[in-house]
Amino acid sequence: MTTTAPAEKVADDFREAMRRLAAAVVMVTTWMDGQPWGLTVSACCSVSMTPPSLLVSVGEYTATARAIRHEHRFGVSILGQQQADVAKFGARPREPKFVSQFCDEGTAARGLTPVVRGAVAHVDCLGTQEMVSGDHLLFIGEVQRVVLHPDARPLIYYASDFHRVERLMGASEPESEGLLYPPW
């Protein structure tokens, strides 16, 4: 006979398991009242290559969710290893997240969502789907444009802290570019 663990134990164990999942640090960007807005999130992944699509998860009742719904667009800036301050700014609970001081000027004129200056990459998406999952909204966006910064290395979140890729690998330099940047 299989028994189910109490919900509180499952929730605690799940949090611990997610702390062990190393992930790139991303900031979801959009426009709010004509100004750049950004939220650091832990849930972001590619969905499809045909058409190129990306999924982000944000709290259902956040200002970010409202702005994405209003704009029908969002961007994802994959933060570089020197941008822990940007990540921390975008993760502050219940604080305004106007991020103009971190963004490239002129992105609105180019028709882009706000691009975080120095990010490894920025993916500009047109919102195509939205669904509720628990207390979050999952937004799927079709990729419209990509801005790459080829020399930047990603910031990694692991064990409730920010890390450089090299630090996680225990070396001063990555062993292989292929390990860090698969060709997809």
Describe this structure in words.
There is one protein chain. The protein is α+β, with helices and mostly antiparallel strands and 184 residues long. The protein is 21% helix and 38% strand. It has helices at 7-19, 63-71, 84-90, 165-169, 177-180; strands at residues 23-24, 26-32, 35-41, 44-49, 52-59, 73-78, 121-133, 136-148, 155-158, 161-164. The strands form 2 sheets. It has a 7-stranded antiparallel sheet with strand order 3-2-6-7-8-5-4. A 3-stranded antiparallel sheet has the order 1-9-10. A hairpin with a 2-residue loop joins strand 9 (155-158) and strand 10. The longest helix has 13 residues, at 7-19. The model is unreliable at 172-184 (pLDDT under 50).
Distance between the termini: 44 Å
As residue ranges, the low-confidence spans are 172-184
The helicity comes to 10-25%
How many strands?
A: 10
| Main sheet attributes: strand count, strand direction, barrel closure | 7 strands, antiparallel
The radius of gyration is 17 Å
What's the shape?
A: globular
Write the layout of secondary structure elements.
Blueprint: H1 7-19, E1 23-24, E2 26-32, E3 35-41, E4 44-49, E5 52-59, H2 63-71, E6 73-78, H3 84-90, E7 121-133, E8 136-148, E9 155-158, E10 161-164, H4 165-169, H5 177-180
Antiparallel strand pairs: 1-9, 2-3, 2-6, 4-5, 5-8, 6-7, 7-8, 9-10
